[in-house]
Design a protein that fits this description.
The model has no long low-confidence stretch (mean pLDDT 83). Helix 4 runs antiparallel to helix 6. This protein is of the alpha/beta class and 229 residues long. The protein has two domains: 102 residues, Nucleotidyltransferase, domain 5 (2-Layer Sandwich); 108 residues, no CATH class. The longest helix has 33 residues.
Length: 229
């Protein structure tokens, strides 16, 4: 059971925050729509009968609001969306209804919270995700180059692909038609890991080792490395 007087559900989006508060003493319901500025949300919460507790669903807006509320001394729970107890048969989903449901679940202590990572852990996640995304882009560009060359009868027999010799071979290929030439040149530029690193698109080896070698992540990275085949 929630110990705070007012329970507030926040339906957080990129450009708006729909809020519903429930006063457990008087039964009064408070509703508003706010801009997604942390200060605006905090200022409105401070107008409610205190103490106040809040909750919102985990999602693409991240943990910034949670950290701002916690720093302001307002308890906040980030709810796991898959664990919300929605009424059976309730298929009408609006921002206001979502905020009300969150407030009701928080009031009776039925919010299943997700684990909020530290700022350092979230930073490491950002770098890992960025590296994996760029690597995926690199693989897709190489696939497009290979298939385009195959369609036009160009096949490399000089050893492993995407080596220095292979890139030199690619640079010697010319296409007369402007459409094919433009497509080949664009994908060829993206297919080089060196060119990605030079433009800043690929996390480089200078920055990447700082995370695995730091004391904070050394044990975790060693364990993950030991599990590779």
């Amino acid at each position: 059971m929630n110990v705070e007087r007012t329970s507030v559900g926040l339906d957080v989006h990129a450009r708006s925050v729909v809020a519903t508060g429930l006063d457990s003493v008087t039964g009064e319901v408070f509703k508003t729509t706010l801009v997604p500025e942390h200060s605006a949300v905090i200022d409105w919460l401070r107008t409610l009968p205190g103490p106040v507790a809040t909750t919102y669903e985990a999602g693409p807006t991240g943990y910034g609001l949670y950290r701002a509320l916690s720093a302001a001394g307002i308890r906040c729970e980030i709810a796991a969306p898959s664990k919300l107890n929605r009424p059976s048969g309730d298929r009408v989903k609006t921002d206001a209804r979502d905020a009300l449901l969150l407030a009701q679940l928080l009031q009776v202590g039925q919010i299943v919270s997700v684990r909020v990572p530290s700022i350092e852990r979230e930073s490491a996640r950002d770098l890992v995700r960025s590296r994996e995304d760029v690597r995926g882009d690199l693989m897709r560009a190489r696939h497009r180059v290979s298939k385009l060359l195959l369609r036009h009868g160009h096949v490399y027999y000089g050893g492993h692909a995407w080596t220095g010799a292979h890139h030199a071979w690619l640079r010697r290929i010319r296409f007369e038609l402007p459409g094919t030439r433009a497509a080949f040149e664009a994908d060829s530029r993206q297919s080089s890991s060196r060119s990605l690193a030079a433009t800043g698109s690929m996390p480089t080896s200078r920055r990447w080792p700082r995370i695995p070698s730091s004391p904070r992540w050394c044990a975790t990275c060693a364990a993950c490395g030991g599990s590779r085949r």
